[in-house]
Specification:
By secondary structure, the chain is of the alpha+beta class. The chain has three domains: 126 residues, no CATH class; 87 residues, no CATH class; 105 residues, no CATH class. Helix content is 11%, strand content 28%. The protein contains five helices and 23 strands. A hairpin with a 5-residue loop joins strand 9 and strand 10. The N terminus is likely disordered.
Length: 405
């Protein structure tokens, strides 16, 4: 009896204590609450404002240089690995425009998107680079990274997810041992230089993506055009990062037998086709329309997409691939304009038609365009020469990099 009274007294004290605390007793075998087992996720950070870097890049490559034939680590090729802009809300990621209403350039300050007048809209990444090329479908582009002086990186930037990844490291080492490069005579050294050559992409047209989008082809040379003494051809697999590097010119200096370009980069021959007649007709259909020039001894390089402007290659430049000279001709007003490249923002006044000169002569005080530079229409009447944008009839703008094309 006393034992039952003691139990009853203890239960009463416990109940009064719980009432005083304002809660009811929980069953002894109750499971933890949902809030305790599934804490609320942290709030997503705000998206970067306009003008700031909004894309994430992968970590710097290791200092050790891997074999040129070894593929990069899987993380470098996996969009879900480091390099994905996880810090930004996916809904806040604004894709790069691929409809032609903006310009995307890659330069020392990174990847930047501009409007067609050259005004900076936003900086996409601070990764320095050059020579960007669209991949088929324009979901991404590749470019040459410039983190190291003795090498280039082939990198890939996603136009939709803004992810920047390293694909492969490209050695710019000379193709022959150092001892193979003896000093030339005075006449050669004046143009070629002495010692071990330094290789790089010297002509923009010599970096391209194959039609199937699986490889990038590049020529690394020691000089532009006909002054070259060493040419190395590279093929880079975009899915594997594998680099094939072969010597195609200059092998006599180290007694190497020169070879053709890597197989993915070779130009198709008639032996590679089943129907030569069909191929010939396709080639004729793809040739640009030949436009008659309004000036004697000149030729029309191309016409603006709005069909108003003609880019005229002048007679003095036809024999010199290193120093080209162009003018823009307005077909409505029938006036010719020079293309100054001194950072001037105002559109120049019309100029007189230069008198025809002999081959390999240049027009005095007329602007030059290097034979290895980009020459492309980037809008209805927007011409890009190298890193200069000419908005025909309106203004001239210096670009902070090379346009993606």
């Amino acid at each position: 009896m006393q034992h039952d009274v003691a139990i009853l007294h203890g239960s009463l004290v416990l109940a009064l204590g719980l009432v005083a605390c304002g809660r009811e007793p929980a069953p002894a075998d109750a499971a933890p609450t949902a809030a305790a087992s599934n804490p609320a996720p942290p709030a997503s950070p705000p998206a970067a404002p306009a003008g700031e870097v909004v894309a994430s890049t992968d970590p710097a490559p290791p200092s050790a240089t891997p074999s040129e034939t070894d593929p990069p680590p899987a993380a470098a090729l996996d969009p879900a690995a480091e390099g994905t802009p996880a810090a930004a809300d996916e809904a806040a990621v604004v894709p790069v425009s691929t409809t032609g209403d903006t310009l995307v350039v890659v330069g020392d300050g990174g990847i930047v998107e501009l409007d067609l007048d050259g005004k900076v809209l936003r900086t996409l990444t601070s990764e320095p680079g050059r020579s960007p090329r669209w991949l088929p479908g324009k979901d991404a582009f590749v470019y040459l990274g410039q983190r190291r002086a003795d090498a280039r990186e082939l990198r890939r930037f996603g136009a939709k997810d803004l992810v920047d990844l390293a694909i492969a490291r490209l050695s710019l080492a000379a193709p022959c041992p150092k001892a193979a490069y003896a000093e030339g005579d005075e006449e050669e050294s004046e143009f070629m230089g002495d010692g071990v050559p330094e290789l790089d992409l010297t002509i923009e047209e010599e970096l391209r993506v194959t039609a199937d989008g699986k490889h990038v082809c590049m020529l690394a040379t020691d000089h532009e055009a006909d002054l070259r003494s060493n040419v190395v051809s590279m093929s880079i697999g975009l899915s594997t990062g594998k680099v094939e590097r072969v010597l195609v010119f200059g092998g006599e200096e180290c007694k190497r037998r020169t070879v053709d370009d890597p197989k993915p980069c070779r130009t198709p021959t008639s032996e590679d086709t089943e129907d030569e007649e069909d191929d010939a007709s396709d080639l004729e259909a793809s040739e640009p329309e030949e436009i008659e020039s309004p000036f004697p001894m000149t030729r029309v390089h191309s016409r603006s997409p709005d069909e108003r402007w003609l880019l005229i290659e002048l007679a003095s430049a036809l024999g010199d691939v290193l120093h080209l000279q162009f003018g823009l001709y307005d077909t409505r007003t029938r006036k010719l304009y020079s293309l100054p490249r001194n950072g001037k923002v105002a559109w120049p006044k019309p100029t007189a038609v230069p008198s025809p000169l002999g081959e390999d002569e240049t027009i005095p005080d007329w602007p030059d365009v290097g034979g290895g530079e980009t020459i492309a229409w980037a809008g209805p009447h927007h011409l890009v020469l190298g890193r200069t944008l000419f908005v025909a009839g309106e203004r001239i703008v210096e670009l902070p990099g090379d346009i993606v094309r």
